[in-house]
Amino acid sequence: MPDRLQQMSKSKKIIFVASVDWAFMSHRLPLALAVRDKGFEVLVYAVQEGKLKEKIESYGFTFRPLPTTRSGTNLLRELNVVRFLYKEYRREKPLIVHQITVKPVTYGSLACRFLKIPLVVNALTGLGFLFINKDRNRIKYNIIKKIFDFGFKNRKMHFILQNHDDMKMVLKFKHVSQDRVHLIKGSGVDLQEFEFQPGPSGDVIQILFLARMLWDKGLKEFVTAAERLKKVYGDKVRFVLAGGADYGNKAGVPREVLEQWNREGNVTWIDHQKDVKKHITESHIVCLPSYREGLPKALIEACAIGRPIVTTDVPGCREVVEHGVNGFLVPLYDDIELSERLSQLINNESLRNQMGVAGRIKAEKEFSVEDVVRKTFDIYNSVLG
Asked: What is the pTM of this model?
């Protein structure tokens, strides 16, 4: 197929709409750079939470802050985001609008509803707190579903999902057809930067929890398992929480709770860490007992470096781990099974090494960032061609 992106790039624009600036930088920068290198003008819209405007614009992109907060619930303010995006899309006349995560997809789909944009890509990267707890948030869930049913009535709209479970859920919405739904597993990992490394030496086994400090990442289960295993292994094991407290998320763990855990000594919280690679490399096992994911970037990075993984048998996580091959899948909320699987790896260096190699092979086959960019370009080209 001819590369329509290259042929049509002169004076053409692509708009990326992300939830927050730091999420765009951590997950979408390689894709945006690849589109820029095709000759496109790249515009990035996001909540300016990380104060990354200058950094984003250093790549030659245009950055415009969204007039809201990530956790905004004020109805009038949120409606203003729809109005803002509608005006921006109408003024900029982009060839492609690429909207990422539930909130940008919700507002952006409404803004696109009455505009003739050649291609709208909705990347639903996990279906979020509301969808995890939809039985407890039935009214809000039904409102979002009705918005989706209205906003998705657009034949130029395509959808990217990161796991098969989310694909099935999106296909239940009105006006979403199979031919416009695509599976791309995550945002990819740079296999050269995250090269394979043998497990660390030393007598202390380190188990790493690498994620934002959210209850629905399985923090309660991880800390409970750590408390149980510290009684068995003492100082021979170290449980590390690497991730920032997220006050913009309803599932955020309060800082005082994290600091209390530090004082109790079963886990060590080291807050947000920029050098993710260093912490994975220094750990023997990576653990994420999450309640639901799109496709967790930390786990595919752990695969690439060659670390065995213990995670939950839920959407997103089971896309990364083959049970018994490159890690273990445990039942949701089951801290006892979590403890047992971690103990199995703590006691078996040979198994850790075997699973680490299998994880690297899986990363090379399924999770390279080049593959993610290529598959996304295939969507762009298939519509624009």
From this structure: 0.89
